[in-house]
Amino acid sequence: MMKFSKIAASVAFLSVGVSAGALHAQTAEVLHWWTSGSEQAALGEIRKAFEAKGGTWVDTPIAGGGNARAAAVNRMLGGDPAAVFQFSIGQQLRELADQGLLANVGDVATAENWDEKLPPLIVKAAKYDGNYIAAPINIHGENWMFYNTAVLEEAGIEVPKTWDDFIAAAEKLKAAGVTPIGLGGQPWQERIMFNSVLLGVAGREFYAELYSTLDDDLLKSDTMRKVFETFAALKPFVDEASPGRNWNEATNMVAKGEAAFQFMGDWAKGEIIAAGIEPGTTVGCAFAPAIDTAYIMTVDAFAFSAMDGEHATPAQTLMAQVMLEPDVQIAFNKKKGSIPARLDVPADSFDVCAQTAIKTLQDKKTHLVSTGLFGVPSAVSGAIDDTISNFWNSADMSPEEGQAQFQQAISYAK
Ligand code: GAL
């Protein structure tokens, strides 16, 4: 049932006798990769709010982040840009701004005072030349471990705190005929699990220094070799149907008890919620095993193609404004499995895992960035995904060889 205020707004809008031009002015094509159940449900909250304010939403879903990002860039370079496209804030988005492909939404950001309402790390990553080039709408964490509580109980297993504990638990599960890890065998998913092992074995300071400096000595260190040895030890714990599996299918395996654990970003929690499961009940959440506490962040955002010069069109402006409204932030993030980008949004109605994230992030020493789209240049991000996937899927590459390939590819790409 629409609230009275929304009905009144709709009647007022229609009674003014909207001209085609005005309708067109509020029309935005939105290109994105949110095709899973929970992603669609979450995005629907933004669409609903945009349309309630008179916007016309043209939906262009493209499955797979890499495919959608390539399509958005190709459309811009081909002179037929999608007005609004999903990205993640960070270095790769700034590369597009460098090429003059993006409009800025500085007017909205100023009017809505985003500088004060967003965390400093996000403000910095969402701006280019002092202007906002994207509307950051959430904070996802990548170093989560989801698990089926009944499967662990049945096997007499405690939630593992270290990777050695995890390996011992996985061996016990495998001996009992249970698939220890539900994994989607795609490079970005394998990389997420690798980075959780890296963080867990080497610690948050090593993670931060390694990915901010890409230093050869760190890449060649004994610590990195231990990371590759630990990652290699996980290979026997996934099922043979893992290659090519989508992330949400792996989440479903854990929800149904077909696998015990999934190491994934908390968009997996969105799927658990969409399946009618309260996170922390039959499916538990904890940070992946680690020697200290940290949060590997990725921030979803929508960017705006430069349609006519660097200023956003009325439809792009309306979209940016709607995305950061408090009630949209709550409705969207509760379904997406993330936490609001805005600091001033009450999050006490969020689930227990989200509360852990919010509490953790109050300590700035826990703030780490994803190597997916946020923390490193495109070429380095690609080198990381490719070499980790190559190592994970190689039957005979030693941890030393995997580490050497990782170091060489990053050194070449940086
Ligand atoms: C990530 C994105 C998440 C989720 C995931 C899987 O890049 O930040 O929101 O969509 O891809 O599709």
Automatic annotation (TrEMBL):
Main location: periplasm
Position of the signal peptide: 1-24
InterPro entries attached to this UniProt entry: Bact_solute-bd_prot1, SBP
Entry-linked Pfam families: SBP_bac_1
GO cellular component: periplasmic space
Sorted UniProt keywords: Signal, Transport
Compartment(s) where it occurs, according to its Swiss-Prot or TrEMBL record: Periplasm
Function: Part of a binding-protein-dependent transport system for a sugar.
Similarity section: Belongs to the bacterial solute-binding protein 1 family.
UniProt-recorded name of the protein: Probable sugar-binding periplasmic protein
Source organism of the structure: Thalassospira tepidiphila MCCC 1A03514
